[in-house]
Structure formats: C-alpha cells, structure tokens
Specification:
The structure is a single chain. The chain is of the alpha+beta class. The chain folds into two domains: 124 residues, Uridine Diphospho-n-acetylenolpyruvylglucosamine Reductase, domain 3 (2-Layer Sandwich); 117 residues, no CATH class. It has eight helices and 18 strands. The strands form four sheets. It has an eight-stranded antiparallel beta sheet with strand order 14-11-13-12-16-17-15-18, with helices on one face. The protein has a five-stranded antiparallel beta sheet with strand order 4-5-9-7-8. The model has no long low-confidence stretch (mean pLDDT 89).
Length: 325
C-alpha cells in the first residue's frame, strides 16, 4: 500500500524528503491528488508527499496586486480572502474547492480565463522549493516587474513535481470585475459570429461525448456585450452553473486538446466541454488523428530532458516520482 506523508511545516517536509532518499523510497510531491488521474496517470511512487496541510495565506499586498501562499491553499479560500480587496487570482479552473493551488500550477491545469490573463503559470511570480536532496531554494521575485535571469520558476512548474517540491508561491493578482452580465449562447459551430472576442469567459457543454447530443453554451461579459453579439441574457446563477458543468467535464475527462488560435471546432470530435476563447476541449479519448498543430494533454511521451535536469538540480540524489522500487 502506498504511504502518504503529510508534513505540517517546512522542517517536516524537508525531513521526509531526506529520509525517503536515504531509505530508498520513491517519493512524489502532491496536494490532494485531485488532478493526478489526468496529468500524471502513470505515477506510482512508494510514498506520496502531500503538501495539503501547508495551507496558509502568508502575505497580501493589495497595492502591488500580489500575495504569497503555501501550496495547500485552495483557489476558493484565496478568492474569499481577495474579495474584500477587490482582487482575484485571474484563474478559473477545476478543483477550486477541493484542489490545491500547488496542484493547479504544477499540473499544469487549464484556466477558462486563459485568453484574458494567460495560462495559470503566468500568474506565478516566484516560489520556494525543496529539492530531492533536501536543499531549500528560492526562485523568481515577489514583484510583478523583475529583471531576474533564467526563469527557473517556470522550469519547476512545468516538471509536475519531478524536479522540486513546492512549499511557497508568490502570485500575481488581478482587478476583480465590477459588473458581470450573463448570456446563453446558440450554435457552437459559428463562434466568430457570436462576437465572443470581448467576453470574459465562454463555454459550450455537451451532455456526453456523442456528437449527436444537445449542446448548451454561456458567456460572461464585464458590462454590456459588443455590437453584433447574439445571445439571450440570463441570470448569473444559470451561467455560473454552466461554467461549473464545463469545469466538471474538464475535471472528469482524462484528455484535453488545445487548438491553435483561430481554429475551427473539429468535426466528429468526441468533446464534452469547449472553451472557444482558450481553444480548449475536454475529450473522452485520445483522438486517432488530431488536427494539425493541436496540443494534447497529458503528453504520452516522457521528456528526454527530465533525467538530466533532475541530476543537475540535486546531483546524486534520487529524483522525485517514478515507480516504487
């Protein structure tokens, strides 16, 4: 049976990493493991190192639009703390209640606000980490504008916990929208005709992966929609339920396709949720012949750079992840 270690502070996390290394255990960092089945389905360590108990918001700087958190904080908890300041993280992703921010950024998961604010990793300014030999390191900056050299923060985020254990994150915050209006959308085959380019977020949801199943769509605008927009205005709660359905479809789907900008919706594609602004589809299965230029997650092929990078980060130490010995 796989052991789950749950350190309550940095010293305990460091000790667990050092003991696993000397004891010959394979160790993989995680949060609540709500995203593992999608982003690292083959992970099989002998020990999980769960950072979910490190769940404090350490610092909020409203004037600088930044905050510093531990990796076990949930997106919902951070959103509640930011609301009185008129700020938000600028991410709308699955697992807002039961997932952790560490898992969100290290997965890497999607965001329905990708077109407006970029992918989740763009909201990370810096962090603190523990390498697989127990060494503590800091990367990035605590300010939005930085002249730092190599972007090691992005390297660690992209490794899905295989290069370093995240113990702290400094995040960029965004201005919270003052007015939101919600609309139900029509035919998903003509998103350009719906003038969705000015929307804050838009989604289409299908009842299942069958291409014959009915489709519903919603869009949120900050204020009035642009001229030419066609949609029926509805209560915000209805649209939020629609967004929740889309996030649920992305969360339960094992495959996600990211289309190149400006791509049309692929025909006969077994999708269950579609984000036309971000070009993201939730799929039931890996496509037999994906459209040219699209990106499929999770990536099936292992990176040839992972092993040498792990050795460079912690020479001579066993890397994070892998199968149990």
């Amino acid at each position: 049976m796989t052991e789950i270690l749950t350190p309550s502070n940095l010293d305990e996390a460091e000790d667990a990493i050092r003991q696993s290394a000397t004891g010959g255990h394979s160790l993989q960092p995680c949060g609540n493991r709500t995203r593992i089945h999608r982003h690292d389905p083959d992970a099989a360590p002998s020990r999980w190192l769960s950072l979910s108990s490190l769940d404090s918001i350490l610092d909020i700087q409203p004037g600088d639009h930044t905050c510093t958190v531990q990796p076990g904080v949930s997106a919902a908890k951070l959103d509640d703390a930011m609301a009185p300041h008129g700020l938000e993280l600028g991410i709308l992703s699955p697992g807002g209640e039961d997932g952790t921010l560490g898992g969100l950024f290290l997965a890497p998961d999607l965001s329905l606000l990708r077109r407006r604010h970029g992918p989740p990793r763009d909201q990370v300014l810096g962090g603190k980490w523990i390498l697989s030999d127990g060494t503590r390191v800091s990367t990035g900056s605590k300010v939005v504008k930085s002249v730092a050299g190599y972007d090691v923060t992005r390297l660690f985020l992209g490794s899905r916990g295989r290069l370093a254990t995240c113990v702290e994150l400094t995040l960029r915050l965004r201005q919270r929208p003052r007015e939101l209006r919600a609309f139900r959308l029509g035919d998903p085959s003509t998103p350009a005709g719906l003038a969705l380019g000015k929307a804050r977020v838009s989604v289409f949801v299908r009842d299942s992966a069958s291409t014959n199943d009915p489709i519903q769509g919603w869009a949120l605008f900050e204020g009035a929609p642009p001229p030419g927009f066609e949609g029926q205005e509805v209560d915000l709660d209805e649209a939020r339920r629609g967004l929740g359905s889309a996030l649920g479809a992305f969360s339960s789907s094992s495959v996600r396709m990211h289309l190149p900008p400006g791509s049309d919706l692929p025909e006969h594609c077994p999708w269950t949720a579609w984000d036309p602004l971000g070009g993201q589809l939730a799929l039931a299965t890996f496509p037999d012949s994906p459209p040219s230029g699209c990106h499929i997650l999770p990536v099936r092929e292992s990176s040839p750079w992972l092993a040498p990078l792990a050795e460079a980060c912690a020479p001579g130490a066993p890397p994070f992840g892998g199968e149990a010995p």
